[in-house]
């Protein structure tokens, strides 16, 4: 009996020693881990190199990480890092309207990975317009509300975080709904001028709506009776306002304005056989004309503006030869353009590799140039066509 008690006692002692050894080992491991904790600035540098989706999840790690990731300073540093590396992994955003929902898809060209988001509930199935990207944000608005009883809408959307904000209507949209239309005025406003969503500074943005001034969209609140009118949306004031000075050239409506480096660009209608480029400075809110452009003698129907490598680029297609040329405006001089591409569009395949999707050049394809969207690491260029 006594021997059995000693055996039981020694067994319990062994278990207790094992527990004590386990606790000591855990403390030793904890001390070891604490001894190699990375400095705060190193942790921040690691977070800066992570995508937005990962940083959103990592806000739950600790209060310190949450405070860091949500700070304006971190957001600015992260944006700078993304700006420097975005050309290596370009992404394309697709937008479509389904059963009263807007579906946004992002496609990474380097990895061919597709992400799908159902972001917004938007009543109806009217056509929409989507702006270029500003630090991952896009502006989505309706371009045909003038023919509908529904109020026009404007949204600023972050497809990555699924955040969106609805903005108040521009005065232009309100005027279009109140206007009395005739066959002539409907011809003048179709297509509707595009809205520019542009970056002023790293974390400051503006919406700019430049449109031709006509009797049917006059407004007593507007201080300008010239050829064009301009409205600017201030995000801090959450309000639209008119600019007093606008260019004395009618813009070419059927195009999307391009923006880079705090400037926005529009093509004009032809004046004395010449198409000009209007420049708007977002900081000073002043307009001017580019002194030169390589396609000035062409009709604006045959020209397209875009941004590649953070520079203004101009495309022109020659209808008879199907040759498209692309020039880039040098940052050091607004008079110096360099031809960066000459593309023979007849060399493009007329069907997919599987042979299931037929493709033919239509009359509109012949007239309109293809818009350059991105340049890949292997120097291939991705072209988009509005039709």
Q: If you compute it from the alpha carbons, what radius of gyration comes out, rounded to the nearest whole angstrom?
A: 29 Å
The helix tally amounts to 8
Could you estimate the helical fraction of the residues in percent? Answer: 10-25%
| Strand elements, count | 21
Q: SSE order in H/E notation?
A: HHHHHEEEEEEEHHEEEEEEEEEEEEHEE
Average residue pLDDT? 76
- Structural category: alpha+beta
Largest sheet: 4 strands, antiparallel
Trace the largest sheet across and list its strands.
Answer: 4-5-6-7
The end-to-end span amounts to: 96 Å
- The 3D shape can be described as elongated
Strand proportion, as a percent range, falls in 25-35%
Low-confidence spans: none
Describe the structure.
- The chain is α+β, with helices and mostly antiparallel strands and 387 residues long.
- 24% of the residues lie in helices and 32% in strands.
- The chain has eight helices and 21 strands.
- The protein has helices at 2-35, 40-48, 52-58, 63-70, 72-85, 171-178, 183-189, 363-367, and strands at 91-97, 101-108, 113-121, 128-130, 138-142, 154-158, 163-167, 196-201, 204-212, 228-234, 239-242, 258-260, 263-267, 277-281, 286-289, 303-308, 311-318, 323-329, 337-344, 371-375, 381-384.
- It has a four-stranded antiparallel β-sheet with strand order 4-5-6-7, with no helix packed on it.
- A hairpin with a 4-residue loop joins strand 10 (228-234) and strand 11.
- It is elongated.
- The mean pLDDT is 76.
């Amino acid at each position: 009996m006594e021997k059995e008690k000693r055996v039981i006692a020694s067994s319990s002692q062994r278990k207790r020693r094992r527990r004590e050894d386990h606790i000591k080992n855990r403390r030793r491991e904890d001390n070891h881990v604490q001894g190699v904790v990375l400095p705060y600035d190193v942790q921040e540098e690691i977070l800066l190199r992570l995508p937005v989706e990962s940083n959103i999840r990592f806000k739950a790690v600790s209060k310190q990480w949450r405070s860091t990731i949500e700070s304006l300073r971190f957001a600015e540093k992260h944006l700078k890092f993304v700006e420097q590396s975005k050309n290596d992994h370009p992404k394309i955003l697709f937008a479509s309207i389904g059963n009263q929902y807007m579906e946004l898809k992002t496609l990474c060209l380097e990895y061919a990975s597709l992400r799908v988001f159902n972001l917004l509930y938007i009543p109806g199935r009217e056509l929409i317009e989507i702006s270029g990207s500003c630090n991952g944000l896009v502006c989505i608005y309706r371009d045909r509300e003038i023919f509908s009883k529904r109020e026009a809408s404007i949204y600023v959307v972050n497809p990555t975080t699924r955040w969106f904000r609805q903005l108040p209507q521009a005065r232009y949209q309100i005027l279009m709904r109140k206007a009395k239309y005739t066959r002539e005025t409907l011809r003048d406003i179709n297509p509707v001028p595009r809205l520019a969503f542009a970056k002023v500074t790293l974390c400051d943005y503006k919406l700019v709506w430049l449109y031709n001034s006509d009797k049917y969209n006059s407004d007593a609140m507007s201080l300008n009776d010239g050829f064009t009118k301009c409205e600017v949306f201030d995000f801090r004031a959450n309000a639209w306002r008119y600019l007093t000075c606008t260019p004395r050239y009618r813009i070419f409506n059927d195009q999307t304005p391009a923006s880079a480096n705090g400037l926005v660009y529009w093509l004009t209608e032809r004046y004395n056989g010449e198409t000009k480029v209007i420049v708007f400075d977002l900081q000073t809110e002043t307009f001017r004309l580019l002194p030169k452009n390589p396609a000035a003698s062409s009709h604006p129907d045959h020209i397209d503006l875009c941004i590649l490598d953070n520079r203004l680029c101009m495309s022109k297609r020659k209808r008879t030869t199907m040759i498209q040329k692309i020039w880039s405006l040098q940052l050091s001089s607004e008079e110096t353009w360099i031809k960066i591409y000459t593309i023979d569009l007849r060399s493009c395949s007329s069907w997919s590799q599987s042979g299931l999707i037929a493709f033919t050049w239509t009359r509109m394809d012949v007239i309109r140039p293809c818009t350059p969207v991105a340049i890949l690491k292997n120097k291939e260029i991705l072209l988009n066509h509005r039709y």
